[in-house]
Design goal:
The chain is mainly α and 222 residues long. It has 9 helices and no strands.
Length: 222
């Protein structure tokens, strides 16, 4: 496991640093927007805007986790397929399904660390100026976006691991439709009642990569 994680780290370390800086930058800028409103018109005005206009001040983050997950999958798996390294990897004396699961687990862990740092930054800042009900409203509104980033990573990995272009196009269409679910309701906290099921749905997308690996192992070309 350590060897697999180290191999994935070598491939993705510079992208992960960039992803961490970019996501933290957008999260920090969103907090600066709240700070500017609070400085100019007072914290009471922030509360009023959030309650009366359904404003959460983190709209800029909506598609950032999605893009982060997509790019991580591309950085991690495109070289594997382009250089035909995956075939060699699957012939190592190690269970093939466990090998792929560990590669996906690495991606999930680093994404969770990246996204958790965003939540830590926002949570620490907002606790100082907002009531718990208000900052939890912002964090819960943003949670489906971060789950979408994890789902996007798993779905794009599925596409990259697919051995045929015809199926990749089909998988891409299915992935777009599945990811659309995370952005159907723009209202704050619209997904609250659905969040546990959304998290399960997100994790289940990992199983799709097994289908591509099964096709890859038997040399499917159609």
């Amino acid at each position: 496991m350590n060897a697999i994680f180290y191999k994935e780290w070598i491939k993705t370390r510079w992208y992960l640093l960039l992803a961490l800086l970019v996501t933290l930058g957008f999260a920090g800028y969103s907090m600066l927007r709240i700070n500017r409103v609070a400085s100019m018109k007072g914290v009471e005005h922030v509360w009023e805007v959030m309650l009366a206009r359904d404003t959460v001040f983190v709209d800029l983050l909506e598609y950032i986790p999605l893009l982060t997950g997509v790019l991580l999958a591309l950085v991690q798996f495109v070289p594997e397929m382009h250089r035909k390294c995956l075939k060699l990897t699957l012939h190592l004396p190690y269970p093939q399904l466990r090998m792929i699961n560990l590669m996906l687990l690495y991606g999930l862990l680093v994404l969770v660390i990246c996204f958790a740092s965003n939540y830590l930054l926002m949570g620490v800042y907002m606790q100082g100026i907002l009531a718990p009900e208000l900052y939890s409203r912002i964090l819960l509104t943003a949670l489906p976006w971060y789950l979408a980033g994890i789902a996007a990573y798993l779905l794009i990995s599925w596409i990259c691991l697919e051995p045929t272009w015809k199926r990749r196009v089909l998988n891409l269409v299915i992935s777009v439709l599945l990811l659309r679910i995370f952005f159907l309701a723009p209202a704050p906290e619209a997904y609250n009642a659905f969040l546990p099921w959304l998290a399960i749905y997100t994790l289940l997308t990992a199983s799709l990569s097994w289908l591509s690996i099964a096709r890859f192992k038997v040399g499917k070309q159609d």
